[in-house]
Amino acid sequence: MKSLFLLSVVALLSAGATSQSAPDAPDHNTEIESRLAGAWKLVSLEEASADGQVHKADCAGMFVFTSDGKASVQVMYRNGQTGSTYAQGGYEASYGTYHIDDPSTFTVHIEGALVRTLIGKDLKRAYEISGNRLTVKSTDPHEHWKVVWERY
């Protein structure tokens, strides 16, 4: 009986020591979310046409990611007649939630948008953070645009 008791104590102490000595592995998505969180100012928006020519849009905008998984983007094209399928009257605005899919993509679930056909959609985006710059591209093979943002 005494040896069974000692064996139980040793097992409990070993389990406690193991759990204390092995720190929890860092959550990679939490690290990425902390790098993404904040306000980003639009630096450039480029779109390739069918013939391969790259058009640089004349626009201004802001992309905001919160640390609790919310996202909002607004882009104003200087010419109200230009824009994208995400814009109406030269203005693009949407908000929703986001999650990190992997170290190179995130998905925004659109809860509200100026272009109402976007509401309820999940928009997957490829991204790269380098210094204070965030580059975002569509993962849709039919969309050929690239947006560069700079941290405010």
Structure description:
With 152 residues, this protein is an alpha+beta fold. It contains two helices and nine strands; from the N terminus they run ααβββββββββ. The protein has a single domain, classed as Lipocalin, CATH 2.40.128. An eight-stranded antiparallel beta barrel has the order 1-3-4-5-6-7-8-9. Strand 1 and strand 2 form a beta hairpin. It is globular and about 40 Å long. The N terminus is likely disordered.
Described by strand count, sense and barrel closure, the largest sheet is: 8 strands, antiparallel, barrel
Tell me roughly what share of residues is in helical segments.
10-25%
CATH topology assignment: Lipocalin
Strand content: over 45%
Order of helices and strands: HHEEEEEEEEE
Overall average residue pLDDT: 84
Reading off the top of the CATH hierarchy, the class is best stated as Mainly Beta
Radius of gyration: 23 Å
Class computed from helices, strands and strand pairing: alpha+beta
In short:
With 152 residues, this protein is of the alpha+beta class. The protein has two helices and nine strands; from the N terminus they run H-H-E-E-E-E-E-E-E-E-E.
